[in-house]
Amino acid sequence: MSTKSTQKWGNGLVELRPEGLYCSLGDFYIDPWKKVKRALITHAHSDHARSGSEAYLTAKVGVGVLTERIGKGALVEGVAYCEPRRIGDVTVSFHPAGHVLGSGQVRIEHAGRVTVVTGDYKVHADRSCHQMEPVSCDTFITECTFGLPLFQWPDPSKVFGEMNRWWQSNRDSNRT
Questions:
Q1: How far is the C-alpha of 57 from the C-alpha of 20, rounded, in Å?
Q2: Which residues pair with 104 in a beta bridge?
Q3: pLDDT per position as a tens digit, 135-152
Q4: How far is 146 from 155, CA to CA, in rounded Å?
Q5: Does residue 2 surpass a pLDDT of 60?
Q6: How confident is the model at residue 122 (pLDDT cuts 50, 70, 90)?
Q7: What would the DSSP string read from start to end of the chain?
Q8: In the prediction, which pLDDT does 125 show?
Q9: How far apart are CA 101 and CA 115, in angstroms?
Q10: Mean pLDDT to the nearest integer, 167-172
Q11: Helix (H, G, I), strand (E, B) or coil at 35
Q12: For residue 144, what pLDDT is reported?
């Protein structure tokens, strides 16, 4: 998809600009690709969180990870999951995405319309982070890194079972 033309999604609440996903009614970007005035960050992985923006807002539980990613001098603020925050003419909130510590879906509401933007998310429970919570919305904008049908992942309990059997086999053989 070309980033040169402006495309609006989510009933016009979010548009694609060269800097990334932009909400004009709140004057902020979500996971911007370039330096911007205000960045809302879904999680601290490098393809979502980049240094150089003037101010960052993210889920409170992810502030430490984000600060490590972009630099200790950055202006980073966190909000609790589900806590509404008024920014310009919209109300935003972060909701658990279940991907990594601090990952959040960004819910944007204006005049009864709701758009949710998520970076990566995971629907399986993971004790390392808050479990993903579905958020009711009119429009859902998501990243789809592994969305092609060729990507088929086994159930995590099967993978963890194989890992545990491998570990036990090594232990029983007195192998480090």
A1: 16
A2: 96
A3: 999 999 988 777 778 888
A4: 16
A5: no
A6: confident
A7: --SSS-EEETTTTEEEETTEEEETTTTEEES-SS--SEEE-S--STTT--TT-SEEEEEGGGHHHHHHHH-TTS-EEEE-TT--EEETTEEEEEEE-SSSTT-EEEEEEETTEEEEEESS---S--TTSPPP-----SEEEE--TT-STT--PPPHHHHHHHHHHHHHHHHHTT--
A8: 84
A9: 23
A10: 96
A11: coil
A12: 77
Of 28, 95, 35, 39, the closest CA to residue 66 belongs to 39
What are the backbone angles phi and psi of residue 123, rounded to the nearest 5°?
Answer: -90, -15
pTM of the model: 0.83
CB 20 within 8 A of CB 6: no
Positive/negative CA dihedral, 75, 81, 83, 88:
positive
Tokens of 138: 């009119």
Phi and psi torsions of 38, nearest 5°: -135, 125
| Amino acid making up residue 150 | L
User: Whose structure tokens read 């990566």?
Assistant: 120
Q: Which pLDDT tens digit goes with each residue over 59-105?
A: 999 999 999 999 999 999 999 999 999 999 999 999 999 999 999 99
> CA-CA distance, 168 to 13, in Å (whole number)?
52
